[in-house]
């Protein structure tokens, strides 16, 4: 008589959802770094996440669109056709290239993913246009014109290290 042995469970684990989110978030933050500068005096109004915030606008006044929106919709409102760089469960990210600037549009299926992404991006500092389940990373000089098209709030995130300025 032969005895059957129970199958041995594999010790190999699939990456957890949190680990995948961290990896995607870190990748997204690294992609944003060259596109965003952290040097701006700004004003001293404090926003959520340790950053500064401009007055909130939630709808896209010029287009009559209320966020959340898809990467392609936001790209169309800003005058470009986005090249999708990341298409994951936690976020979608597209790169836009125009004569004025290159910029990233990131959308999220849930608000909590956006807040996690912003918390990770805080390390790099910079200014971002933030809406309901979306973030646009563009040169600070263009943020106001993008806000007029898309709505949202301009958030300044503090980077690591001392604040630039006179000593």
Keywords:
about 25% helix, two-stranded antiparallel sheet, about 170 residues, alpha+beta
List the helices and strands and how they pair.
Blueprint: H1 17-32, E1 52-53, E2 59-60, E3 65-66, H2 71-78, E4 83-87, E5 92-97, E6 102-107, H3 111-121, E7 124-131, E8 134-137, H4 143-150, E9 153-159
Antiparallel strand pairs: 1-9, 2-3, 4-5, 5-6, 6-8, 7-8, 7-9
Helix pairs in contact: 1-3
Task: Give me a quick take on this structure.
The protein has 167 residues and is an alpha+beta fold.
Description:
Helices cover 26% and strands 25% of the residues. The chain has 167 residues and is an alpha+beta fold. The strands form 2 sheets. It has a 7-stranded antiparallel β-sheet with strand order 1-9-7-8-6-5-4, sandwiched between helices. Strand 7 (124-131) and strand 8 (134-137) form a beta hairpin. Helix 1 packs across helix 3.
For the largest beta-sheet, the strand count, sense and barrel status come to: 7 strands, antiparallel
Overall outline: globular
Low-confidence parts, pLDDT < 50 over ≥5 residues? 29-58
Helix segment tally? 4
Quaternary organisation: single chain
Report the portion of residues in β strands.
25-35%
Look at the helices and sheets and give the structural class.
alpha+beta
Counting DSSP E segments of at least 2 residues, the number of strands comes to: 9
Average pLDDT:
74
The arrangement of helices and strands along the chain is HEEEHEEEHEEHE
Distance between the termini: 85 Å
């Amino acid at each position: 008589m032969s005895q059957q042995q129970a199958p041995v469970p594999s010790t190999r684990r699939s990456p957890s959802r949190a680990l995948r989110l961290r990896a995607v978030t870190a990748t997204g933050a690294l992609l944003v770094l060259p596109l965003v500068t952290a040097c701006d005096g700004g004003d001293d109004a404090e926003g959520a996440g340790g950053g500064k915030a401009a007055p909130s606008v939630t709808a896209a006044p010029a287009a009559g669109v209320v966020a959340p929106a898809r990467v392609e919709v936001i790209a169309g409102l800003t005058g470009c056709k986005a090249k999708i760089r990341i298409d994951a469960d936690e976020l979608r990210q597209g790169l836009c290239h125009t004569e004025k600037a290159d910029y990233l549009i990131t959308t999220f299926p849930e608000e909590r993913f956006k807040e996690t992404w912003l918390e990770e991006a805080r390390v790099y500092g910079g200014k971002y246009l933030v809406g309901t389940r979306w973030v646009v990373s563009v040169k600070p000089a263009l943020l106001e014109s993008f806000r007029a098209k898309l709505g949202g709030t301009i958030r300044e995130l503090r980077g690591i290290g001392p604040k630039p300025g006179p000593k």
